[in-house]
Write a structure and sequence with these properties.
single chain; 381 residues; TIM Barrel; 8-stranded parallel β-sheet; 3-stranded antiparallel β-sheet; 15 strands; 18% strand; globular
Length: 381
């Protein structure tokens, strides 16, 4: 079965939407946050722990699973769900972002991308067809089209050519997509350019994908203004009856702002990545539990959090684990950080139901530090 998206409600004061996505592995509510399980695991966490956090969809990476252990082995195991013992919905990205971070511009051809493995330096070649073939074998609920991920600083001229290539690649990938139980999403690119975002969205929608993603918003060097503009320039041209996914975004404030602008799905490695460095999301912003001020702090990470870490451990204990480099410290912070983002989307959904999302945003920023945009910084000078 392909996914089925049901638009339940549109918020009166914003472009936010309340929806439901039916998949072969359960029904999930949107807006939602998807934890990243790059190598068929959300780092250090078991599926049972993810269920306890009310996780719905999780994301795995095509490039990494292609190299190790290989799509054929995973298919032999019964598909990605069986292989990793996760019985909720899974989305696989195309591998494009990882590929383009390893490739040089001259390696990008019309046929595909030549690059070297990050593991052993061996030569690799990935095409739109190969990316879809791998994802078909992984048997995820949602697969992503293979696209070029140009840097945020790319010129208008380069971005236009890149979009044209991505559109051709999307069409090629869609033609070879054969897994009838797997949905396929198209990806909108265009950087900070309004005309290119409109063009990319319009042309991608013509191909009639099962859902649509806004890409190129989590690249190095991109400003908050550009991220929000990319959403605003793309959303008007995406169909209301299909889900909208903002790729690679997991900063709490960006989730709030993204939902207000019409986004349904988010993913990011951020909650587990910062956890491994001792950082926790809280309503007052990020806290570094390695800091000495937490050595004798016998309170939970966040007093009203219902996650396993906050219900059972103190900041002092987690500080100790981090100081002596015990992996449990990062595990507990990963549990908390993922639950924090999922709980945030739960609160957002309630605010949409009651048409008070702007009030929710205002209350959120009363305690959570709002990062200034480049424009705001210039205005202060």
């Amino acid at each position: 079965m392909k996914i089925k998206y049901h638009l339940i409600q549109e918020e009166k004061n914003t472009k936010a939407r309340l929806g439901i996505i039916e998949t072969n592995h359960g029904t999930v509510e949107t807006p939602m946050f998807m934890p990243v399980g790059t190598r068929a695991t959300v780092k250090t966490l078991t599926p049972e722990e993810l269920y306890d956090m009310h996780t719905g969809v999780i994301l795995s990476n095509t490039y990494h699973l292609w190299l190790r252990p290989g799509e054929d082995l995973i298919a032999k195991a019964g598909g990605l769900h069986t292989f990793m013992n996760y019985h909720g919905p899974i989305l696989t990205d195309s591998g494009g972002y990882q590929v383009f971070s390893l490739a040089k511009p001259k390696d990008i051809t019309e046929e595909g991308v030549h690059f070297r493995s990050h593991i052993d330096g061996s030569k690799l070649f990935l095409t739109p067809e190969k990316s879809i073939e791998i994802q078909n074998k992984l048997d995820s609920d949602i697969a992503m089209s293979f696209d070029e991920c140009p840097p945020a600083s790319a010129s208008h001229e380069y971005m236009k050519k890149s979009i044209e290539r991505t559109l051709r690649w999307a069409e090629r990938g869609k033609k070879v997509h054969q897994n009838e139980n797997q949905s396929l999403f198209g990806i909108v690119q265009g950087g900070p350019y309004e005309d290119l975002r409109k063009y990319s969205a319009t042309e991608t929608v013509k191909m009639d994908f099962d859902g649509y993603s806004i890409g190129g918003v989590a690249n190095d060097g991109e400003s908050k203004e550009d991220m929000y503009k990319a959403i605003e320039y793309s959303i008007p041209y995406l169909p209301k009856e299909k889900p909208r996914y903002l790729m690679g975004v997991g900063e709490p404030s960006d989730i709030v702002e993204g939902v207000i602008r019409g986004i349904d799905m988010f993913d990011c490695v951020l909650p587990t990545r910062i956890a491994r460095h001792g950082h926790a999301f809280t309503k007052e912003g990020r806290k570094n539990l390695k800091n000495a001020c937490y050595k004798e702090d016998f309170t939970p990470i966040e007093k009203d959090c219902d996650c396993y870490a906050c219900q059972n451990y103190t900041k002092a204990y987690i500080h100790h684990l981090l100081q002596v480099e015990e992996s449990l410290g990062g595990r507990l912070l990963s549990i908390h950080n993922i639950r924090f983002l999922i709980h945030l989307t739960e609160e957002i959904r309630e605010a949409i139901k009651e048409n008070r999302l702007l009030e929710f945003r205002d209350a959120f920023y009363q305690t959570y530090p709002k990062k200034e945009t480049n424009k705001q910084k210039k205005e202060k000078k």
